[in-house]
Amino acid sequence: MIAPHPAQGNIIGRELAAAGLEGAVDIAEEDTLTTITRSAIAVGTFSTSLWESAALGCPTYVIPVPGHEETLQDVESGLFRLARTPHDLVPYEVPASRHDIFGTA
Length: 105
Prior knowledge:
By secondary structure, the chain is of the alpha/beta class. The protein has helices at about 10-20, 30-35, 50-55, 70-75; strands at about 40-45, 60, 80. Helices cover about 25% and strands about 10% of the residues.
């Protein structure tokens, strides 16, 4: 399932079709935070949603594409993990430091 950025809402279907993924990927109909709370893991590149996912206790993976360098400090701390292949995507216990992201308890 993909939860597109709000700015992609009107074009995500065309983008998936152009990539040959039409019908192979579900597009989340709910808001991002609701989608995260129902997810086993979260995967992204560089987005506030990564930190939201971690703060909500969802194992969060970063794909190494341009821009992911902004997340490396949190990869090094263990908050996120790097996913180079689909085999890297396994659930893990998100560290307690996640509570410091947005001051959540």
